[in-house]
Design brief:
MBL fold metallo-hydrolase; seven-stranded mixed sheet; 465 residues; binds zinc ion; hydrolase activity; Beta_Casp; RMMBL; MBL; alpha/beta; single chain; Rossmann fold; 31% helix; Metallo-beta-lactamase, Chain A
């Protein structure tokens, strides 16, 4: 069997890993979009390093765009096979993929208006391609083996990253041999604030696993919640400013809203308005609310006291753009949570532009940002930024709270992998991480007793027979 690493190899976005058996069966694991800087809309998203029409089936680990965002393009370019995922992942893709098509079309029209059209602005797909792709989705339950094909069985196990996310466990027959493969997708925190945590997965011989925070420790949740309270107090009460929080629509937004909901319930949230200013974040929250069977015990217990864990009196969800624009003129202190999380597109761009030059305000970054993105530059201490062709001085405070990340740190990822017997593993491939991070993570893994660890590069093809 060969594994082709066609995305998220020595980088964090664009997840695409292709398994090819000697018998010619081709299974694609995820079909994500590259994000950040020049790559978005650029060459990497316009060409697949394989023939889409030759792929037999696609398995999707979870709905984040860097794992799912090129599925409509794959279908547009000739893929006709089934796409397997969990039920919440399909529900989320039904809002996220149309949103992705919509953003691309809006960017295209904006560039057209400004006379800045180039091939890089052309949408990768449109809503018809999205609908054709959604027709191919088939959902499967967690913790059950499903025979997808004569030679392939699949089981999703809980990985605790976002609702619907799963570790992809595969049994793939090749001649007389059966390969035991696990692709972890993204690994969540040990204690997720909303959904069930990770569970052990069956012993695998080949493991493809993420490494986003392979060189970091996040710190404990209680400390970070205290820090969040301090930041809210300092910004909204002492400075009388605005707290701007860029957050992924899916996962991070619900976690932050729930943290604020808890603060409100405990009487620790100042009486300021809180806005979730994003139609996608609003819809994603509705979907998270519709799958309470995947909540963890802590939030179920919380809901015995407060049936609305993502809603309190001062919280407003904004879909309509005209209400979003009204926030620009709001004089009073407030909290605005908006997407995208890496500050690359969407309404957050306007909120950063409107608020970054006022020292009363705070920009709070709560998750991973590719260094080339605006979020990444702010995170790394940029003093001046450019948004839509205009320069801005960074006068607002910039704070970072990584504990709100949906990804485990290196100790958590190793703990997740500790259900495996290292001597039974033939190969571990590290993906979804920056190369310097991955080399550090490999050292940590070796100290924990794991061996045969490789860090494939983009385009590498590895034989694993
Ligand atoms: Zn993810």
């Amino acid at each position: 069997m060969k594994i082709h690493f066609n995305g998220a190899a020595r980088t964090v976005t664009g997840s695409k890993h292709l398994l090819e058996t000697d018998d010619g069966l081709k299974i694609l694991l995820d079909c994500g979009m590259f994000q950040g800087g020049e790559s978005e809309g650029g060459r990497e998203n316009r060409h697949f390093d394989f023939e889409p029409g030759e792929i037999d089936l696609l398995i999707l680990s979870h709905a984040h765009i860097d794992h799912s965002g090129l599925i409509p393009k794959l279908v547009k370019d000739g893929f006709k096979g089934p796409i397997y995922c969990t039920e919440p992942t399909l529900a989320l893709c039904e809002i996220m993929l149309p949103d992705s098509a919509h953003i691309q079309m809006s960017d295209y029209r904006f560039s057209e208006k400004k006379g800045l059209l180039s091939q890089a602005n052309e949408p990768l797909y449109d809503i018809d391609d999205v609908l054709a792709a959604l027709d191919l989705f088939q959902t499967v339950n967690y913790n059950e083996w499903h025979h997808l094909h004569d030679d392939v069985a699949l089981m999703f196990t809980f990985v605790g990253h976002i609702i619907g996310s799963g570790c992809v466990n595969l049994r793939v027959k090749e001649g007389r041999k059966t390969h035991k493969i696990a692709y972890t997708g993204d690994i969540g925190r040990k204690t997720h604030r909303i959904i069930k945590g990770w569970e052990p997965f069956p012993q695998a011989e080949i493991i493809i696993t993420e490494s986003t925070y392979g060189d970091r420790l996040h710190g404990d949740i209680a400390t970070n919640e205290a820090r969040l309270r301090e930041i809210v107090h300092q910004t909204c009460v002492v400075n009388k400013g605005k707290l701007i929080i860029p957050a992924f629509s899916l996962g991070r937004t619900q976690e932050i809203v729930h943290a604020l909901d808890k603060m409100e319930g405990e009487g620790l949230l100042p009486a300021v308005k809180v806005f979730v200013d994003s139609p996608l974040s609003t819809s994603a929250t509705e979907i998270v609310k519709s799958f309470p069977q995947y909540y963890n015990k802590a939030i179920k217990k919380y809901m015995e006291r407060d049936s609305q864990p993502f809603g309190f009196s001062n919280l407003h969800y904004i879909r309509d753009v005209k209400y979003s624009k009204l926030l620009n003129n709001l004089e009073e202190p407030c909290i605005i949570i908006s997407a995208s999380g890496m500050i690359e597109a969407g309404r957050i761009m306007h909120h950063v532009a409107n608020n970054i030059e006022d020292e009363r305000n705070t920009l709070l970054i709560v998750g991973y940002c590719e260094p080339s993105t605006l979020g990444g530059r702010l995170r790394n201490g940029a003093k001046e930024i450019r948004i839509y062709g205009r320069d801005y001085k960074v006068k607002a405070a910039v704070e970072v709270l990584d504990a709100y990340s949906a990804h485990g740190d290196y100790e958590e990822m190793i703990e997740y992998l500790s259900c495996q017997e290292p001597h039974l593993i033939r190969k571990i491939f590290l993906v979804h991480g920056r190369y310097e991070t991955q080399t550090t993570y490999r050292t940590h893994l070796m100290e924990a007793g794991f061996h045969h660890i490789e860090i494939p590069d983009q385009g590498d093809v590895v034989e694993v027979s």
